[in-house]
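Technical note accompanying the year-one report. For the benefit of new consortium partners, we illustrate the data format agreed upon in the data management plan: each record pairs a sequence with a C-alpha coordinate string. No post-processing was applied to the example shown here.
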Amino acid sequence: MAKKSPLFSFLLLLPFLLTLTQATSKDQPCKHIVLYYHDILFNGTNVANATSAQVAGTNAPLGDFFFGKLIVFNDPITADHHLFSPPIAMAQGFYFYNMKTNYNAWFAFTLVFNSTEYKGTINIMGADLMAMETRDLSVVGGTGDFFMARGVVTLRTDTFQGSAYFRLQMDIKLYECY
Protein backbone atom coordinates (compact mmCIF):
# COMPACT_ATOMS: atom_id res chain seq x y z
CA MET A 1 0.00 0.00 0.00
CA ALA A 2 1.31 3.45 -0.95
CA LYS A 3 2.33 5.80 1.85
CA LYS A 4 0.26 9.04 2.00
CA SER A 5 2.15 12.28 2.12
CA PRO A 6 1.78 14.79 5.01
CA LEU A 7 0.43 17.30 2.47
CA PHE A 8 -2.39 14.91 1.56
CA SER A 9 -3.33 14.54 5.26
CA PHE A 10 -3.23 18.31 5.74
CA LEU A 11 -5.52 18.86 2.72
CA LEU A 12 -8.00 16.36 4.15
CA LEU A 13 -8.06 18.22 7.49
CA LEU A 14 -8.16 21.74 5.99
CA PRO A 15 -11.97 22.03 5.65
CA PHE A 16 -12.40 20.92 9.27
CA LEU A 17 -9.77 23.42 10.50
CA LEU A 18 -11.41 26.26 8.56
CA THR A 19 -14.79 25.41 10.06
CA LEU A 20 -13.32 25.53 13.57
CA THR A 21 -11.69 28.89 12.89
CA GLN A 22 -14.93 30.39 11.57
CA ALA A 23 -16.96 29.06 14.52
CA THR A 24 -14.48 30.52 17.00
CA SER A 25 -14.44 33.94 15.31
CA LYS A 26 -18.27 34.16 15.44
CA ASP A 27 -18.12 33.82 19.25
CA GLN A 28 -16.01 36.95 19.65
CA PRO A 29 -17.02 40.37 18.29
CA CYS A 30 -14.90 41.79 15.50
CA LYS A 31 -15.57 45.31 16.85
CA HIS A 32 -16.60 46.37 20.37
CA ILE A 33 -17.56 49.97 21.28
CA VAL A 34 -19.15 51.42 24.43
CA LEU A 35 -20.98 54.73 23.92
CA TYR A 36 -23.51 56.91 25.75
CA TYR A 37 -26.84 58.03 24.30
CA HIS A 38 -28.32 61.30 25.67
CA ASP A 39 -32.00 62.26 25.19
CA ILE A 40 -33.53 65.59 26.23
CA LEU A 41 -37.27 65.62 25.51
CA PHE A 42 -38.85 68.90 24.38
CA ASN A 43 -41.15 70.13 27.18
CA GLY A 44 -42.58 73.23 25.50
CA THR A 45 -39.95 75.65 26.80
CA ASN A 46 -36.50 74.04 26.27
CA VAL A 47 -36.21 74.67 22.52
CA ALA A 48 -32.47 75.39 22.64
CA ASN A 49 -31.54 72.20 24.54
CA ALA A 50 -34.12 69.63 23.36
CA THR A 51 -32.83 66.74 21.26
CA SER A 52 -36.16 64.92 20.89
CA ALA A 53 -39.84 65.79 20.56
CA GLN A 54 -43.18 64.05 20.67
CA VAL A 55 -44.69 64.10 17.18
CA ALA A 56 -47.72 61.84 17.57
CA GLY A 57 -49.87 60.27 20.21
CA THR A 58 -52.02 61.78 22.84
CA ASN A 59 -50.68 64.37 25.26
CA ALA A 60 -52.65 62.59 27.98
CA PRO A 61 -51.18 59.07 27.88
CA LEU A 62 -53.51 56.09 27.54
CA GLY A 63 -53.00 54.41 30.91
CA ASP A 64 -49.81 54.95 32.85
CA PHE A 65 -47.32 53.79 30.23
CA PHE A 66 -47.55 56.42 27.41
CA PHE A 67 -49.04 53.89 24.98
CA GLY A 68 -49.13 55.36 21.46
CA LYS A 69 -46.65 58.19 22.09
CA LEU A 70 -44.14 58.66 19.21
CA ILE A 71 -40.84 60.50 19.75
CA VAL A 72 -38.44 61.62 17.01
CA PHE A 73 -34.86 62.35 18.02
CA ASN A 74 -31.46 63.64 16.95
CA ASP A 75 -29.53 62.75 20.10
CA PRO A 76 -25.82 63.20 20.83
CA ILE A 77 -23.68 60.09 21.37
CA THR A 78 -20.58 60.51 23.52
CA ALA A 79 -17.63 58.30 24.46
CA ASP A 80 -18.23 58.98 28.17
CA HIS A 81 -21.29 59.65 30.31
CA HIS A 82 -20.97 63.46 30.28
CA LEU A 83 -23.74 65.18 28.31
CA PHE A 84 -21.50 68.06 27.26
CA SER A 85 -18.58 65.93 26.05
CA PRO A 86 -17.95 66.33 22.33
CA PRO A 87 -20.33 64.00 20.46
CA ILE A 88 -18.66 61.32 18.36
CA ALA A 89 -21.94 60.44 16.64
CA MET A 90 -25.60 61.44 16.47
CA ALA A 91 -28.48 59.01 16.95
CA GLN A 92 -31.21 59.88 14.44
CA GLY A 93 -34.54 58.07 14.46
CA PHE A 94 -37.62 57.43 16.56
CA TYR A 95 -39.11 55.42 19.39
CA PHE A 96 -42.69 54.80 20.36
CA TYR A 97 -44.33 53.39 23.47
CA ASN A 98 -46.12 50.18 22.54
CA MET A 99 -47.44 48.57 25.75
CA LYS A 100 -50.37 49.38 28.01
CA THR A 101 -49.18 47.18 30.89
CA ASN A 102 -45.53 48.23 31.32
CA TYR A 103 -43.00 50.77 30.03
CA ASN A 104 -41.72 49.51 26.72
CA ALA A 105 -40.50 51.38 23.66
CA TRP A 106 -39.61 50.25 20.18
CA PHE A 107 -36.54 51.94 18.66
CA ALA A 108 -35.37 52.39 15.07
CA PHE A 109 -32.38 54.66 14.56
CA THR A 110 -29.06 55.24 12.87
CA LEU A 111 -25.84 56.20 14.61
CA VAL A 112 -24.21 58.72 12.28
CA PHE A 113 -20.45 58.92 12.89
CA ASN A 114 -18.28 61.75 11.62
CA SER A 115 -15.31 61.80 13.95
CA THR A 116 -11.57 61.26 13.68
CA GLU A 117 -12.04 57.70 14.95
CA TYR A 118 -15.03 56.51 12.87
CA LYS A 119 -16.87 57.46 9.69
CA GLY A 120 -20.14 55.89 8.57
CA THR A 121 -23.35 54.64 10.14
CA ILE A 122 -24.72 51.81 12.28
CA ASN A 123 -28.43 50.95 11.92
CA ILE A 124 -30.17 49.70 15.09
CA MET A 125 -33.70 48.52 15.82
CA GLY A 126 -35.69 46.56 18.38
CA ALA A 127 -37.71 46.55 21.58
CA ASP A 128 -36.44 48.41 24.64
CA LEU A 129 -38.02 46.52 27.56
CA MET A 130 -37.31 49.31 30.04
CA ALA A 131 -38.09 47.30 33.18
CA MET A 132 -35.12 45.01 32.48
CA GLU A 133 -31.63 45.99 33.65
CA THR A 134 -30.15 45.29 30.20
CA ARG A 135 -31.90 45.08 26.84
CA ASP A 136 -30.57 43.88 23.49
CA LEU A 137 -31.36 45.56 20.18
CA SER A 138 -30.22 44.34 16.77
CA VAL A 139 -27.57 45.94 14.60
CA VAL A 140 -29.07 45.44 11.15
CA GLY A 141 -26.54 47.15 8.90
CA GLY A 142 -24.14 50.00 8.42
CA THR A 143 -21.99 52.01 6.06
CA GLY A 144 -18.41 53.31 5.92
CA ASP A 145 -16.29 51.84 8.73
CA PHE A 146 -19.33 49.70 9.63
CA PHE A 147 -20.18 48.46 6.11
CA MET A 148 -22.86 45.73 6.33
CA ALA A 149 -22.30 45.36 10.09
CA ARG A 150 -24.37 42.87 12.08
CA GLY A 151 -24.42 42.51 15.83
CA VAL A 152 -26.08 43.41 19.12
CA VAL A 153 -26.39 46.61 21.13
CA THR A 154 -26.94 46.04 24.85
CA LEU A 155 -28.66 49.03 26.47
CA ARG A 156 -28.41 49.87 30.14
CA THR A 157 -30.19 52.86 31.66
CA ASP A 158 -27.40 54.98 33.10
CA THR A 159 -29.50 57.97 34.26
CA PHE A 160 -33.22 58.62 34.21
CA GLN A 161 -34.77 61.99 35.15
CA GLY A 162 -38.42 61.38 34.33
CA SER A 163 -39.48 62.49 30.89
CA ALA A 164 -36.94 65.39 30.91
CA TYR A 165 -33.68 63.49 30.33
CA PHE A 166 -32.29 59.99 30.16
CA ARG A 167 -28.91 58.50 29.33
CA LEU A 168 -28.31 54.99 28.04
CA GLN A 169 -25.04 53.11 28.01
CA MET A 170 -24.74 51.38 24.63
CA ASP A 171 -22.48 48.32 24.55
CA ILE A 172 -22.09 47.66 20.81
CA LYS A 173 -20.73 44.29 19.71
CA LEU A 174 -20.39 43.71 15.99
CA TYR A 175 -20.02 40.11 14.81
CA GLU A 176 -19.91 40.76 11.07
CA CYS A 177 -17.35 43.37 9.99
CA TYR A 178 -16.16 43.94 6.43
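Partners are asked to follow this layout when depositing records. The two ends are 47 Å apart (CA to CA).
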